[in-house]
Design a protein that fits this description.
- The chain is an alpha+beta fold.
- The protein has a single domain, classed as Aspartate Aminotransferase, domain 1 (Alpha-Beta Complex), CATH 3.90.1150.
- 31% of the residues lie in helices and 25% in strands.
- It has 3 helices and 5 strands, in the order αβββββαα.
- The protein has a 5-stranded antiparallel sheet with strand order 1-2-3-4-5, with helices on one face.
- β3 and β4 form a beta hairpin.
- The radius of gyration is 13 Å and the shape is globular.
- The protein starts with a helix and ends with a helix.
Length: 107
């Protein structure tokens, strides 16, 4: 089986569920080959985060990731604003503090 079917799909489903718990009714739409989440549906200026599937990982990207507290050093990237977390297995959701990062991003 491929990464997409065996690992990526369950990862993105769990990320979606966490986001829905943290911010019920959040706007979501396909964009950039993945799914993005907006505080105001259809308004790209309110984009908070998104997830994107690659060959060997899922990237959870935060529009203003530079503002997030990251005591465990799980965020990657050094651009002006955006940061991301690479997820390769289900246990990464817990080990890389995904819920905490999502809660911060939507607060």
């Amino acid at each position: 089986m491929t990464f997409v079917l065996t690992v990526a799909e369950p990862l993105t489903q769990e990320i979606d569920a966490i986001i829905e718990e943290v911010c019920p009714g959040v706007g979501r739409r396909p964009m950039y080959g993945g799914t993005v989440f907006e505080l105001e549906a259809g308004n790209h200026k309110t984009m908070v985060c998104g997830h994107f599937v690659y060959k060997n990982h899922v990237s959870l990207e935060f529009s203003n990731g530079f503002e997030l507290s990251d005591p465990d050093g799980v965020l990657e990237g050094n651009g002006k604003y955006r940061r991301h977390i690479k997820l390769t297995r289900q246990s990464d959701i817990h080990e890389k503090s995904v819920r905490s990062m999502i809660e911060q991003a939507f607060s």
